Amino acid sequence: MTQPSSATHEMLNQSPPFEDVDLFAMDRPLVEAVAANGGAAAETELSEFGKHWGSAEMAARGRLANENTPKLRIFDPRGNRRDEVEFHPAYHELMARSAHAGVHNSTWNAQGKPAGGAAEVVRAAKFYMAAGVETGHLCPITMTRASVAALAAQPDLLAKAMPVIGTRAYDPSFAPWPTKRGMTLGMGMTEKQGGTDVRSNMTRAERDGETYRITGHKWFMSAPMCDAFLVLAQADEGLTCFFMPRFTPDGSVNAIQFQRLKDKLGNRSNASSEVEFVGAYAQRVGDEGKGIRTIIQMVQLTRQDCAIASAGLMRSGLAHALHHARHRSVFQKHLADQPLMRSVLADMALHVEATIALVMRLCRAFDRAPHDQSEAAYMRLLTPAIKYWVCKSAPGFLYEAMECLGGNGYVEEGILARHFRESPVNAIWEGSGNVMCLDVLRALSREAEAAAAVLQALAGETRGLSGAAETVASIGKAFRRPDGERVARLAVEQLALLAAAAALNKVSSHQAELFAATRLAGTHAGMYGAVDLSSADVSGLLARALP
Ligand SMILES: Cc1cc2nc3c(=O)[nH]c(=O)nc-3n(C[C@H](O)[C@H](O)[C@H](O)COP(=O)(O)OP(=O)(O)OC[C@H]3O[C@@H](n4cnc5c(N)ncnc54)[C@H](O)[C@@H]3O)c2cc1C
Question: Least enclosed by CB within 10 Å: which of 144, 356, 391, 392?
């Protein structure tokens, strides 16, 4: 395409921006995965969302929110504590748009119970599309949605909070949450001496009548302008979960003192604080000593969202790469017509197809788990395996997508540099890679029968696919080994691949066989494109990925 000339040269051969598109309708693997998992009725709503989030305006907001990073204002000019974080208006717009679409609450009904139907699948499709545009703001969105699961341990508090959590308004005012039109919640678990091992938490909780005073610190506490945080602290009976609002019931600012904001690799539109609690007011959530059991309900949901967000990042990387390759010519031929580039893009498209099928299958399990034991078992065993595989595959994938754009991929004006810097965090937080593998082992030993049934079901759903039977046998063998922990990564990766093949088989048996042939029947080579796919399959994959 010829573009306006500059004084010294003609502008040729640069790809146009990938904007003003319908992120839903143009993503056939997404449309089919949503339909295969019960969400077909929401197609119009998702297409509206896709058009809005695919607009040039939203892309600009994503860029602005990351270029103009949040600022911590600890004191006012007279030296009084403020402990406020200021965000660029673009960040607030992104928050408002996500809240307006219910991404922060649509999986719950007004009472804070699971909404049922395909609420998880539909909301996941929105989360996935939004993640491809701007991921940082999704941190408070995901924590707010997930907090309801932990608040369920304290029904009186949940009943008070739901009317505020349950609205689709975003209210950024710094005011007590019961007075607001909408609210967001964060969580504080990680301390300097340990994030995985939260039992090492030193923060103390002392009874103050019916409530508590919390003293201590958190080393990472993201989205500090949330209206309340679910915080772990040691009470008399042990580690306990608390609801810590920004304001005390008498309307004064709670003793939550931010020390500084983290200077992060990515996730820059989102603020992550270091914080001290100086006798901060809090209410107990669940029983004393049951803090991990209470907050793990929330963490299970944030882990699900990590996988969805990483899938969305990869999809965005693929779409930008393919769009660019269709417009950029090298040696008089579009990149998208060069056989080697086609192999790279098709192999990447296959990875994304399997990933989106898998995360939507997981979301269906979340939808059905309250009424279906086998779906609940799938959810418990597969959530850590899927978080492990999907999130850890994102950085390598996005690096490859970036390379498809050549030098333009590496510079900050484009979205791929931002996606690449964003991509490692989903694997690190909410349970890092090894921790996810240990979680799979834990689910296997605690619920051996249910886990065996999940594996058997996956074997049935993948029967006849290349390499599936061997993979099933290998997983079973690895998990039975007395030194299973040593080989856990191998077995968990195979489990995720098998589950991906099964999920894809429900969407398209042909795509599932391509995935199985290149990922189960042999070990996939280290780089994308190092596969032997037929020309017809390459064309088919690319057409499905982007019309
Ligand atoms: C941007 C960002 C924002 C964050 N926001 C929040 C927040 O809002 N609230 C919050 O509470 N936390 C937050 N965190 C903290 C995050 O959840 C922790 O960093 C994470 O849980 C890991 O804990 P850690 O850093 O203490 O590492 P460690 O627990 O020391 O783990 C280090 C490594 O050891 C591995 N490992 C741990 N145990 C084992 C084992 N038994 N065997 C083998 N390997 C093991 C882990 O997989 C990891 O790779 C945030 C982190 C980041 C980067």
Answer: 392
